[in-house]
Amino acid sequence: MQHGSYSFILSSLLIASASAQSLYQASNSAEEPMPFRWNAGLNGIYDDNVASTSINKESSFALNPSLGLSVTRTTPQTVIDVNGRLGVIYYPDAPVIGGEPIDDLNNQSRLGLSISHRLSERLRFTSLNMASREREPDYSYGIATGRSGGTKGEYISLTTDNSLGYRWSERFGSTSGLKLWQTTSPNATTEDSDRSNWELHNQLRYQYSPQSVITGDYRFAKSYGSGTGQNATDHYLLAGDEYRFSPNTIGIVKAGVQFHEITNGDSSTSPYLELSGNSKMNKELTLKTFIRYSIENEGLNRVINGNLVNFSDHKTLRVGGTAEYAISPMFSILGGIDYIPATFTGAQGDDKADLSDRDECLFNTFVSLSIKFNEFLTGVASYTFADNQSDFGQGATSGDYQRNRISIGLNANF
Predict the structure, then answer these.
(1) Which of 53, 117, 121, 141 is the most buried (most CB within 10 A)?
(2) What angle is formed at CA 369 by the lines to CA 69 and CA 362, rounded to 5 degrees?
């Protein structure tokens, strides 16, 4: 990639990410209409482990300029939400990892679109669209279990989820749709981590009480791997409940079974759990949580001691939470954690390969302090710590690493 080229800017402008695609699925209320709101920012970043999967620990300083936009438009029939950020991470003095400098300019951009349109009193259309091109993964989107480090660089994620909801009676309804998503690493040396996916989903909904909606889900999903990546088929049978504890607190739980089939591998059956919750405790404190346990179709193939090994199952637990507290009209603090243990089982390979099960576990936490100087200017300081323990370390890469990042900057809102 030629840094600073027109293709780089164009690709940044065309990519997207919508908050509705996050694992934080619970929603307390419809968005309030608001005008176009722009945000421009510049952060300075100190990173003590830039290519965190390399055995060579290198620190570096980076600049992160960004331009953001958010707007919500509401009519009696339609709600349209647009949000995004165009940004880059620039290393003035790019560190050298394994004898080669990492890319000195990386995308860190997002843009998204969600639409909810009432076609009639009974029929509603919903479209959730997201994509991202970035170097630093957002674990709440469920895309990655670890950071790709200096070898893969940026990754691109694209998703569109379109569905129709129909209310058959006062208490009973259904929602059916098609979801497409793709993940690629354009600068990786191989295409083995690239995947394309589609999913048909259908949900039955029953209003059990004013606070509770009972749900039943069936999902059929196909996943296609590039290079040596394997194809997979998954069936999900789930039952759940959406419960509103108060006007400002909602919890969603789904549990059931996942039937997993993979080419040239072992079929398996696994429990499935999905939970999310949002609560605005008071004017000052907002809490968000999510939990998901499933077999994920990412990273099923790895090179271990020079031998290609394919794993039939990638069982992953994702636990996350954030808390936002407004200390005063001038000060606010945001903190969060991600805990992602994963197990790779059912290895397939030649006689020379090590086919034992492998484990990975990522812990990531952050805290950010915001200082509002006036209606226009806000200062932000944040600290992020990551600790990864993995059985996949070998050669020039390390499965285990720790990483500290400090960011200080200014945001202008207009």
Answers:
(1) 53
(2) 90
Q: Cα(27)–Cα(37) distance, rounded to whole angstroms?
A: 22
Closest C-alpha among 250, 258, 162, 176 to residue 213: 250
What's 103's domain CATH number? 2.40.160
Q: Facing residues of 154 across strands?
A: none
**Cα–Cα distance measured from residue 81 to residue 71, given in angstroms and rounded to the nearest whole number:** 6
DSSP of 40-90: EEEEEEEES-SSTTBSS---EEEEEEEEEEEEEEE-SSEEEEEEEEEEEEE
pTM (2 decimals)? 0.86
Which among 132, 99, 106 is positioned nearest to 47, based on CA atoms?
A: 106
Q: 210 CB contacts (<8 Å, ≥6 apart)?
A: none
Each residue's pLDDT tens digit, 210-263: 999 999 999 999 998 876 667 899 999 999 999 999 999 999 999 999 999 988
Helix, strand, or coil (residue 222): strand
The total number of structural domains in the chain stands at 1
